[in-house]
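Recall the central idea of this unit: under ordinary conditions, the amino acid sequence of a chain determines the structure it adopts. In this exercise we apply that idea directly, starting from the sequence alone.
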Amino acid sequence: MTALGEIEAAIENLERLRADATQGRWDWIVGMSTGDARLVATLHRTIDAQLKILTGSAGLHAKYADVGRETEWIAAVERAGDLDLARAINGGQS
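Accordingly, the structure predicted from this sequence is:
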């Protein structure tokens, strides 16, 4: 998969997860350990930030590609950790 494809797939995965997520009170967390419940709640709150990071990176792709600098874009998203983030969301290795 290309770097852009990886990032776009991660955006789709996060948007689907967010749409399918339980809204409102999370009564089901009561049965979890405190650490697990905090982890789930924290990860849920970070979805919007992750989407902002990934959509920003995907949006920059066209600007780089239009001037023949896609390789520089790939290097930039790798350095920033955005590609690692996308791979983790997609269930792959970083």
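Helices lie at 3-20, 34-45, 47-66, 70-80, 82-89.
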